[in-house]
Fold this sequence. Notes:
Mean pLDDT of chain A: 90
Number of helices of chain A: 10
Low-confidence stretches of chain B: none
Shape of chain A: flat
Largest interface: A-B, 24 and 34 residues
Structural class of chain B: alpha/beta
Number of strands of chain B: 12
CATH superfamily of chain A: MetI-like
Oligomer: heterodimer
Strand order of the largest sheet of chain B: 8-9-10-3-11-12
Distance between the termini of chain A: 44 Å
Amino acid sequence: MATLELLGFGSTGWGALLLVATLMTLAVTATALAIGAVFGAIVASAKLSGNLILVTLGNIYTTVFRGVPELLIIYLIYFGGSSAITSIGNWMGYEGFLGLPSFASGALAVGIISGAYQAEVYRGAYLAIAKGELEAASAIGMSRAMRVRRIIMPQVLRFAIPGLGNVWQLSLKDSALISVTGLAELMRTSQVAAGSTRQYFLFFIVGGLLYLILTSLSDRIFNRAERRANRSMPASAMGQA
Amino acid sequence: MPGVTRLSVRNIRKSFGTHEVLRGISLDAQDGDVISLLGASGSGKSTFLRCINLLETATDGDIFVDGEQIRMVHKNGRSHPASQKQVDHIRSELGMVFQSFNLWSHMTILENIIEGPMHVLKRPKAECIAEAEALLEKVGIAGKRDAYPAHLSGGQQQRVAIARALAMKPKVMLFDEPTSALDPELVGEVLRVMRALAEEGMTMLVVTHEMSFARNVSNRVVFMKEGLVESSGAPEDMFGSGASPAFRQFIGNFGNGQ
């Protein structure tokens, strides 16, 4: 009974806070994924450009942000960014600490990392397009911009869906690390609830279950999207996904 | 309009590195001409066809489509089109059919056919669909309009590819070995569509290994060897007493199961 009360929505229950925290995790991850999509697309096109400088820059990006611990990037952006802002503030006469907003800096950090993984997904998806189809588009008189819009983008998205599902899952778990900045997402809220009630097992297991619900729901959504995108695939390839 | 020159190619040269694939090829196609380009693999016939719609850029030479010259810029021994816009426009007037069909795999058959007219020529959708359906009827696959390319046989895909090219109302159709990737039993259905097209008076340039098509459907046969036109003429002459020794040897090899 006492357990139910702790998880309930009453004045002594953590239910409402956990629900909000779950939504916060979802929101920060979705924002990170969107930021990562922009970085990923830019980095992927740099790597595919054939220009030596751009290719090298792209390779540096993916190597660094896939090779360095996520937590370090979050510390770097949140604490590094905050201390930079604070010193600017001090220089302008403001006394005291200026913190970056934890949502924005967390989403940016996870987004930058997600971008490194998304770049590889988009690059692979582009390379999966049959070159003959691009030639056919040129041969019919499509301009470069139209080829990108009508032939390349739809197919990159189609081929990228399975990879993006993995990246989303990774980012969802990475978002737990944003708890170090104090953002009241699922990890942080479970931790606070566990600490203040001393019910560690209860709240960490409930937190874990909520993560599982998020990942399995999103898995289902990605599977459905994949099936939809695969309508045009030969029957033999459909079973594989 | 018989007598109108639809395509004129003058002295086309093309090198890949130090290897000269085309060593000066000229060819004129009048309205309604059906020209078969024959030659051993490596003779440059596919490269020649691809130079005409600038999928490959010729190193030298002039190309006129319906009287309009493709403007080229020569710089540092390399050559490239002066205006990409003109290239896109010229390409929209040349229908291209590839060996490997190259239908857009994410679009249905109908979408493949209306894509060019709707987005390149910017014509109204209803009109494009009506014409696409008539074209599908013509190439014998009306029932498959909502299928995806991957669900069709090679012969069906190639017929769709022909319909896709025709939907642009091209002035000249270019065929790059259209039956070479097909199982033998599917070759006939594609050749029948091409023959019907020829009989309607479409101007066609066909790179092929189908001797029966070259002999019975085309009105001119061009035999290429080592990047040059070795001989050319009416099929009656080329396949008759007027054949050059090299061409005779080429078709002889062909008869022996090449």
